[in-house]
Amino acid sequence: MTHVARSLRVAVAICVAIGWASAPDGGADPASAPSIAARSASGDDVVPHGPSLDARLAAIQRRVQAALVYPPLARRRRTEGTARVAFEIGADGRARAVAVASSSGFATLDRAALRALHAAGELPYVYGRLEIPVRFELTARSTEAAASPN
């Protein structure tokens, strides 16, 4: 048996074992495709070791918010909003295929949200396309600190 034929047999066996070929037409059942928050039937995360899916998603959001730099012009104009950013996490742990999924209503905030996602560095791995909110909120303390020359 050639190497290609052997590889094809192994691939077919894997597909059958995981149920892709069990649909009546021999293809994948779209309803059973994994979602962004892939969980087993019992509700457990499909990654058996390490932090839970919810913990990884929370860590991603914390890292992005920590990397956020409020645009000075938006701060002076007291512009606030929430931009939703969509992305995937690459094998290197960095955000890729980054886009604004839902605008904050202000282009400066949307661009800052994308920069924060890139500046967040290596992120915990989560399979699939993610979408998280990036919040821009001014508080009395943050505006006083920005106005202070020190």
Explained architecture:
With 150 residues, this protein is α+β, with helices and mostly antiparallel strands. It has a domain at 53-147: Fusion Protein Consisting Of Minor Coat Protein, Glycine Rich Linker, Tola, And A His Tag, Chain: A, Domain 2 (2-Layer Sandwich). The chain contains five helices and three strands. A three-stranded antiparallel β-sheet has the order 2-1-3, covered by helices on one side. The radius of gyration is 21 Å and the shape is elongated.
Task: Write a compact overview of the structure shown.
With 150 residues, the chain is of the alpha+beta class. It is 38% helix and 16% strand.
The CATH topology annotation of one domain reads as Fusion Protein Consisting Of Minor Coat Protein, Glycine Rich Linker, Tola, And A His Tag, Chain: A, Domain 2
Quantity of strands, as a count:
3
Tertiary shape: elongated
* CATH architecture descriptor text of one domain: 2-Layer Sandwich
Order of strands across the biggest sheet? 2-1-3
In DSSP terms (H or I, runs of 4 or more residues), the helix count works out at 5
Name the assembly state.
single chain
Instruction: Report the span from N to C terminus.
Output: 74 Å
Rounded to the nearest angstrom, the radius of gyration is: 21 Å
Low-pLDDT runs: 1-44
- The CATH class of one domain turns out to be Alpha Beta
Largest sheet: 3 strands, antiparallel
